[in-house]
Design brief:
Helix content is 58%, strand content 12%. The two termini are 41 Å apart. It contains 17 helices and nine strands. The chain is an alpha/beta fold.
Protein backbone atom coordinates (compact mmCIF):
# COMPACT_ATOMS: atom_id res chain seq x y z
CA UNK A 1 0.00 0.00 0.00
CA UNK A 2 1.38 3.39 -0.98
CA UNK A 3 2.50 5.71 1.81
CA UNK A 4 0.68 9.05 1.58
CA UNK A 5 1.46 12.37 3.23
CA UNK A 6 -0.71 15.47 3.59
CA UNK A 7 -0.48 19.00 4.94
CA UNK A 8 -0.55 17.77 8.52
CA UNK A 9 2.60 15.71 7.83
CA UNK A 10 4.57 18.67 6.44
CA UNK A 11 6.47 21.20 8.55
CA UNK A 12 7.26 24.40 6.68
CA UNK A 13 10.03 25.20 9.15
CA UNK A 14 12.25 22.71 7.28
CA UNK A 15 12.52 25.34 4.51
CA UNK A 16 12.15 28.57 6.44
CA UNK A 17 15.20 30.80 6.27
CA UNK A 18 16.48 28.95 3.21
CA UNK A 19 16.86 30.35 -0.30
CA UNK A 20 15.29 28.18 -2.98
CA UNK A 21 16.66 28.48 -6.51
CA UNK A 22 14.29 27.38 -9.26
CA UNK A 23 16.46 26.56 -12.28
CA UNK A 24 14.35 27.05 -15.39
CA UNK A 25 11.08 28.99 -15.73
CA UNK A 26 9.25 26.66 -18.10
CA UNK A 27 6.09 24.62 -17.50
CA UNK A 28 6.97 23.44 -14.00
CA UNK A 29 9.35 26.28 -13.17
CA UNK A 30 6.87 29.12 -13.47
CA UNK A 31 4.29 27.26 -11.38
CA UNK A 32 6.57 26.05 -8.63
CA UNK A 33 8.41 29.36 -8.25
CA UNK A 34 5.21 31.39 -7.95
CA UNK A 35 3.53 28.91 -5.61
CA UNK A 36 6.56 28.80 -3.32
CA UNK A 37 6.73 32.59 -3.24
CA UNK A 38 3.02 32.87 -2.51
CA UNK A 39 3.52 30.37 0.31
CA UNK A 40 6.02 32.75 1.91
CA UNK A 41 9.30 31.11 0.94
CA UNK A 42 12.35 32.92 -0.43
CA UNK A 43 12.63 32.07 -4.12
CA UNK A 44 15.10 33.10 -6.81
CA UNK A 45 14.94 32.15 -10.48
CA UNK A 46 17.62 31.19 -12.99
CA UNK A 47 16.60 31.79 -16.60
CA UNK A 48 18.13 33.49 -19.63
CA UNK A 49 16.83 37.11 -19.63
CA UNK A 50 16.39 37.36 -23.41
CA UNK A 51 14.28 34.20 -23.61
CA UNK A 52 10.46 34.00 -23.69
CA UNK A 53 10.46 32.33 -20.26
CA UNK A 54 12.91 34.90 -18.91
CA UNK A 55 10.63 37.75 -19.92
CA UNK A 56 7.70 35.92 -18.34
CA UNK A 57 9.59 35.50 -15.06
CA UNK A 58 10.35 39.22 -15.02
CA UNK A 59 6.69 40.01 -15.68
CA UNK A 60 5.90 37.84 -12.67
CA UNK A 61 8.21 39.95 -10.53
CA UNK A 62 11.31 37.77 -10.35
CA UNK A 63 14.83 39.12 -10.72
CA UNK A 64 16.75 36.82 -13.04
CA UNK A 65 20.06 35.13 -12.24
CA UNK A 66 22.40 32.94 -14.19
CA UNK A 67 22.35 29.29 -13.15
CA UNK A 68 25.75 29.65 -11.48
CA UNK A 69 24.70 32.78 -9.56
CA UNK A 70 21.48 31.17 -8.34
CA UNK A 71 23.22 27.98 -7.26
CA UNK A 72 25.89 29.94 -5.38
CA UNK A 73 23.22 31.85 -3.44
CA UNK A 74 20.79 29.01 -2.82
CA UNK A 75 20.44 26.47 -0.05
CA UNK A 76 17.95 24.43 -2.11
CA UNK A 77 18.40 23.99 -5.87
CA UNK A 78 15.39 22.72 -7.80
CA UNK A 79 16.44 21.65 -11.33
CA UNK A 80 13.52 22.12 -13.72
CA UNK A 81 15.41 22.14 -17.01
CA UNK A 82 14.60 19.76 -19.89
CA UNK A 83 16.02 16.28 -19.32
CA UNK A 84 18.36 16.50 -22.29
CA UNK A 85 20.23 19.61 -21.08
CA UNK A 86 20.41 18.91 -17.36
CA UNK A 87 23.67 16.95 -17.42
CA UNK A 88 25.64 19.61 -19.30
CA UNK A 89 24.37 22.51 -17.17
CA UNK A 90 24.81 20.49 -13.99
CA UNK A 91 28.49 19.92 -14.75
CA UNK A 92 29.23 23.51 -15.77
CA UNK A 93 27.05 25.61 -13.47
CA UNK A 94 25.47 23.58 -10.67
CA UNK A 95 28.03 21.07 -9.42
CA UNK A 96 30.72 23.70 -8.63
CA UNK A 97 28.32 25.29 -6.12
CA UNK A 98 27.11 22.12 -4.38
CA UNK A 99 28.80 22.74 -1.08
CA UNK A 100 28.09 20.51 1.91
CA UNK A 101 24.52 20.42 3.24
CA UNK A 102 22.94 22.00 0.18
CA UNK A 103 19.85 20.34 -1.26
CA UNK A 104 19.56 19.23 -4.88
CA UNK A 105 16.00 18.66 -6.10
CA UNK A 106 14.30 17.40 -9.24
CA UNK A 107 10.76 16.91 -10.51
CA UNK A 108 11.74 13.99 -12.75
CA UNK A 109 14.31 11.37 -11.89
CA UNK A 110 15.67 10.70 -15.41
CA UNK A 111 19.16 12.11 -15.02
CA UNK A 112 19.76 10.75 -11.54
CA UNK A 113 18.38 7.29 -12.31
CA UNK A 114 20.30 6.91 -15.57
CA UNK A 115 23.54 8.27 -14.13
CA UNK A 116 23.75 11.47 -16.18
CA UNK A 117 23.92 13.53 -12.97
CA UNK A 118 25.98 12.11 -10.09
CA UNK A 119 25.77 14.43 -7.07
CA UNK A 120 28.36 14.49 -4.29
CA UNK A 121 27.62 12.45 -1.16
CA UNK A 122 27.46 15.48 1.13
CA UNK A 123 24.21 16.96 -0.24
CA UNK A 124 20.59 15.85 0.03
CA UNK A 125 19.03 14.64 -3.24
CA UNK A 126 15.24 14.79 -3.34
CA UNK A 127 12.48 14.39 -5.90
CA UNK A 128 9.15 16.23 -5.73
CA UNK A 129 7.18 15.42 -8.87
CA UNK A 130 3.73 16.99 -9.37
CA UNK A 131 1.46 14.61 -11.28
CA UNK A 132 0.21 17.26 -13.63
CA UNK A 133 1.49 19.99 -15.97
CA UNK A 134 2.72 23.30 -14.61
CA UNK A 135 -0.32 25.33 -15.59
CA UNK A 136 -2.47 22.97 -13.51
CA UNK A 137 -0.04 23.12 -10.58
CA UNK A 138 -0.47 26.91 -10.65
CA UNK A 139 -4.20 27.13 -11.29
CA UNK A 140 -5.12 24.56 -8.64
CA UNK A 141 -2.92 26.35 -6.12
CA UNK A 142 -4.64 29.65 -6.89
CA UNK A 143 -8.02 27.98 -6.28
CA UNK A 144 -6.84 26.82 -2.86
CA UNK A 145 -6.20 23.24 -3.95
CA UNK A 146 -3.20 21.42 -5.32
CA UNK A 147 -1.89 18.72 -7.63
CA UNK A 148 -0.82 15.44 -6.01
CA UNK A 149 2.94 14.88 -5.93
CA UNK A 150 5.46 12.07 -5.63
CA UNK A 151 8.32 12.29 -3.13
CA UNK A 152 11.58 10.34 -3.23
CA UNK A 153 14.84 10.68 -1.35
CA UNK A 154 17.96 9.49 -3.17
CA UNK A 155 20.45 10.77 -0.60
CA UNK A 156 19.71 11.87 2.96
CA UNK A 157 22.98 13.48 4.04
CA UNK A 158 21.32 15.87 6.49
CA UNK A 159 18.98 13.31 8.02
CA UNK A 160 16.20 15.80 7.25
CA UNK A 161 15.70 15.25 3.53
CA UNK A 162 12.16 13.89 3.68
CA UNK A 163 11.06 16.79 5.89
CA UNK A 164 12.57 19.25 3.41
CA UNK A 165 10.80 17.51 0.53
CA UNK A 166 7.45 17.56 2.31
CA UNK A 167 7.87 21.24 3.15
CA UNK A 168 8.57 21.90 -0.54
CA UNK A 169 5.46 19.90 -1.52
CA UNK A 170 3.52 22.00 0.97
CA UNK A 171 4.88 25.16 -0.62
CA UNK A 172 3.76 24.26 -4.14
CA UNK A 173 0.35 23.01 -2.99
CA UNK A 174 0.94 19.30 -3.49
CA UNK A 175 0.46 18.40 0.17
CA UNK A 176 -3.11 19.70 -0.08
CA UNK A 177 -3.89 16.90 -2.53
CA UNK A 178 -1.51 14.22 -1.22
CA UNK A 179 2.13 13.22 -1.57
CA UNK A 180 2.96 9.60 -2.43
CA UNK A 181 6.28 8.08 -1.40
CA UNK A 182 8.30 6.47 -4.19
CA UNK A 183 11.88 6.13 -5.47
CA UNK A 184 13.77 7.86 -8.27
CA UNK A 185 13.79 4.53 -10.14
CA UNK A 186 10.06 3.94 -9.83
CA UNK A 187 9.12 7.52 -10.71
CA UNK A 188 11.37 7.58 -13.76
CA UNK A 189 10.43 4.22 -15.20
CA UNK A 190 6.68 4.52 -14.61
CA UNK A 191 6.61 8.08 -15.94
CA UNK A 192 8.38 7.10 -19.16
CA UNK A 193 6.18 4.04 -19.62
CA UNK A 194 2.97 5.97 -19.06
CA UNK A 195 4.00 8.61 -21.58
CA UNK A 196 5.12 6.16 -24.24
CA UNK A 197 2.61 3.32 -23.99
CA UNK A 198 -0.56 5.15 -22.96
CA UNK A 199 -0.73 8.91 -22.45
CA UNK A 200 1.27 10.35 -25.35
CA UNK A 201 2.28 7.50 -27.63
CA UNK A 202 -0.51 4.96 -27.16
CA UNK A 203 -3.41 7.40 -27.11
CA UNK A 204 -2.13 9.40 -30.09
CA UNK A 205 -1.56 6.31 -32.22
CA UNK A 206 -4.98 4.89 -31.28
CA UNK A 207 -6.67 8.15 -32.30
CA UNK A 208 -4.69 8.40 -35.53
CA UNK A 209 -5.36 4.76 -36.45
CA UNK A 210 -9.07 5.13 -35.75
CA UNK A 211 -9.24 8.29 -37.86
CA UNK A 212 -7.40 6.68 -40.78
CA UNK A 213 -9.58 3.55 -40.61
CA UNK A 214 -12.77 5.61 -40.82
CA UNK A 215 -11.51 7.81 -43.67
CA UNK A 216 -10.31 4.76 -45.62
CA UNK A 217 -13.80 3.30 -45.22
CA UNK A 218 -15.26 6.38 -46.93
CA UNK A 219 -16.52 8.43 -43.99
CA UNK A 220 -16.07 12.20 -43.92
CA UNK A 221 -12.82 13.26 -42.21
CA UNK A 222 -14.73 15.84 -40.17
CA UNK A 223 -17.06 13.16 -38.77
CA UNK A 224 -14.08 10.88 -38.07
CA UNK A 225 -12.33 13.72 -36.19
CA UNK A 226 -15.30 14.22 -33.89
CA UNK A 227 -15.74 10.50 -33.22
CA UNK A 228 -12.15 9.59 -32.35
CA UNK A 229 -10.49 12.82 -31.15
CA UNK A 230 -12.98 15.49 -30.09
CA UNK A 231 -15.16 13.14 -28.04
CA UNK A 232 -12.15 11.52 -26.38
CA UNK A 233 -12.08 14.37 -23.86
CA UNK A 234 -15.58 13.46 -22.69
CA UNK A 235 -14.45 9.90 -21.99
CA UNK A 236 -11.21 10.95 -20.30
CA UNK A 237 -13.13 13.34 -18.06
CA UNK A 238 -15.29 10.40 -16.94
CA UNK A 239 -12.15 8.33 -16.29
CA UNK A 240 -10.77 11.21 -14.25
CA UNK A 241 -13.91 11.58 -12.16
CA UNK A 242 -14.68 7.95 -11.39
CA UNK A 243 -12.48 5.48 -13.23
CA UNK A 244 -13.35 3.03 -15.99
CA UNK A 245 -16.39 1.73 -14.11
CA UNK A 246 -17.89 5.22 -13.89
CA UNK A 247 -17.22 5.79 -17.59
CA UNK A 248 -19.11 2.60 -18.45
CA UNK A 249 -21.94 3.61 -16.12
CA UNK A 250 -22.19 7.00 -17.85
CA UNK A 251 -22.28 5.88 -21.49
CA UNK A 252 -25.04 3.97 -23.26
CA UNK A 253 -25.39 0.21 -22.86
CA UNK A 254 -24.62 -0.09 -26.58
CA UNK A 255 -21.33 1.77 -26.10
CA UNK A 256 -20.46 -0.23 -22.98
CA UNK A 257 -21.17 -3.60 -24.65
CA UNK A 258 -19.27 -2.64 -27.79
CA UNK A 259 -16.33 -1.45 -25.73
CA UNK A 260 -16.18 -4.62 -23.64
CA UNK A 261 -16.42 -6.95 -26.63
CA UNK A 262 -14.42 -5.05 -29.28
CA UNK A 263 -11.86 -3.09 -27.24
CA UNK A 264 -9.76 -6.18 -26.40
CA UNK A 265 -9.57 -7.02 -30.10
CA UNK A 266 -7.82 -3.68 -30.71
CA UNK A 267 -5.64 -3.56 -27.60
CA UNK A 268 -4.91 -7.28 -27.57
CA UNK A 269 -2.24 -9.78 -26.57
CA UNK A 270 0.09 -8.41 -29.26
CA UNK A 271 -0.41 -4.88 -27.91
CA UNK A 272 0.35 -6.06 -24.37
CA UNK A 273 3.52 -7.78 -25.54
CA UNK A 274 4.59 -4.57 -27.26
CA UNK A 275 3.99 -2.75 -23.96
CA UNK A 276 6.23 -5.25 -22.15
CA UNK A 277 8.95 -4.61 -24.74
CA UNK A 278 8.60 -0.85 -24.25
CA UNK A 279 8.86 -1.35 -20.49
CA UNK A 280 12.00 -3.45 -20.86
CA UNK A 281 13.64 -0.82 -23.07
CA UNK A 282 12.98 1.73 -20.33
CA UNK A 283 14.21 -0.50 -17.51
CA UNK A 284 17.41 -1.65 -19.23
CA UNK A 285 18.34 1.90 -20.20
CA UNK A 286 18.18 1.45 -23.97
CA UNK A 287 15.49 4.11 -24.40
CA UNK A 288 17.52 6.58 -22.31
CA UNK A 289 20.63 5.92 -24.42
CA UNK A 290 18.63 6.29 -27.64
CA UNK A 291 17.14 9.61 -26.48
CA UNK A 292 20.46 11.02 -25.34
CA UNK A 293 22.08 10.16 -28.69
CA UNK A 294 19.08 11.71 -30.51
CA UNK A 295 19.67 14.93 -28.58
CA UNK A 296 23.40 14.90 -29.33
CA UNK A 297 22.71 15.01 -33.09
CA UNK A 298 20.05 17.77 -32.92
CA UNK A 299 16.95 15.54 -32.75
CA UNK A 300 16.54 14.57 -36.44
CA UNK A 301 14.03 11.77 -35.79
CA UNK A 302 11.91 13.91 -33.46
CA UNK A 303 11.92 16.84 -35.89
CA UNK A 304 10.83 14.58 -38.75
CA UNK A 305 8.01 13.17 -36.65
CA UNK A 306 6.86 16.66 -35.67
CA UNK A 307 6.63 17.66 -39.34
CA UNK A 308 4.69 14.49 -40.17
CA UNK A 309 2.25 15.05 -37.32
CA UNK A 310 1.60 18.67 -38.27
CA UNK A 311 0.66 17.80 -41.86
CA UNK A 312 -1.34 14.64 -41.14
CA UNK A 313 -4.94 14.87 -42.36
CA UNK A 314 -6.21 14.49 -38.80
CA UNK A 315 -4.37 17.67 -37.78
CA UNK A 316 -5.32 19.61 -40.91
CA UNK A 317 -9.00 18.82 -40.39
CA UNK A 318 -8.71 19.48 -36.68
CA UNK A 319 -7.23 22.94 -37.14
CA UNK A 320 -10.14 23.87 -39.39
CA UNK A 321 -12.80 22.50 -37.04
CA UNK A 322 -11.30 24.00 -33.88
CA UNK A 323 -11.47 27.46 -35.44
CA UNK A 324 -15.23 26.91 -35.67
CA UNK A 325 -15.42 26.01 -31.97
CA UNK A 326 -14.07 28.91 -29.90
CA UNK A 327 -15.44 27.26 -26.75
CA UNK A 328 -12.61 24.70 -26.87
CA UNK A 329 -10.05 27.52 -26.59
CA UNK A 330 -8.11 26.31 -29.65
CA UNK A 331 -4.31 26.33 -29.59
CA UNK A 332 -1.78 26.24 -32.40
CA UNK A 333 1.98 25.60 -32.26
Amino acid sequence: MAVMYYESDADRSALEGKTIAVIGYGSQGHAQAQNLRDSGFNVIVAQRPNSKNGKLAQEHGFELHTVAEACAKADVIQVLLPDEVQSKIYKSDIEPHLTENKVLMFSHGFNIHFGQVVPPANVDVILIAPKGPGHLVRSEFEKGGGVACLIAVENDHSGNAKAIGLAYALGIGGARAGVIETTFKEETETDLFGEQAVLCGGASELVRAGFETMVEAGYQPEIAYFEVLHELKLIVDLFYQGGINYMNYSVSDTAEYGGHTRGPRVVNAQSRQAMREVMEEIRNGSFAREWLVECMVNKPVLNKMRSFDKEHQLEVVGRKLRKMMPFVNPKEV
